[in-house]
Design brief:
Strand content: 35-45%
Low-confidence stretches: none
CATH superfamily of one domain: SOR catalytic domain
CATH topology of one domain: Immunoglobulin-like
Number of helices: 0
Helix content: under 10%
Structural class: mainly beta
Distance between the termini: 32 Å
CATH architecture of one domain: Sandwich
Order of helices and strands: EEEEEEEEEEE
Mean pLDDT: 89
Largest sheet: 4 strands, antiparallel
Number of strands: 11
Length: 131
């Protein structure tokens, strides 16, 4: 092989490079497909750093018909709850907003490799990779 190496410098528009932001004042959830400067309620928001889930924040995945059922065994009280579940793959991003006193569960169509996210209002963002 000869010639110059060509690399794709476009670092956005790949949903696996998703950045998530949550406003601590109003609870807005903002999704970006790359780096951005985001502010809400007069506050500049840093992107959330996702951690590997512990036992309390583990994202369970079960096959149901042609979709996957996601659930998190987690308290859903007004003071401590899972705020949203999300799934990002190379070409799509899905997010379901959850509310206190409901169930921390939803259905997604998981297609290929991707990342599942769960956001706890007290402990932050968790991610589970889907091979």
């Amino acid at each position: 092989m000869s010639g110059e190496t060509v690399s794709n410098r476009n670092v956005s528009c790949n949903m696996l490079r998703t950045k998530l932001y949550v406003c601590p004042v109003c609870g807005n959830v903002i999704h970006c497909a790359g780096e951005a400067l985001v502010s809400c309620c007069g506050i500049t928001l840093p992107p959330l750093e996702a951690e590997e889930p512990d036992e309390e924040h583990w994202i369970c995945v079960e096959q149901v018909e042609d979709e996957q059922f996601l659930s998190v065994r987690h308290p859903m009280t007004k003071e401590h709850f899972i705020s949203f579940l999300a799934y990002a793959s190379a070409d799509r991003f899905q997010l379901v907003k959850l509310y206190p006193e409901g169930n921390a569960e939803t259905r997604f169509r998981l297609q290929g490799r991707g990342v599942l996210y769960a956001f706890c209002n007290r402990h932050g963002l968790y991610r589970r990779r889907i091979p």
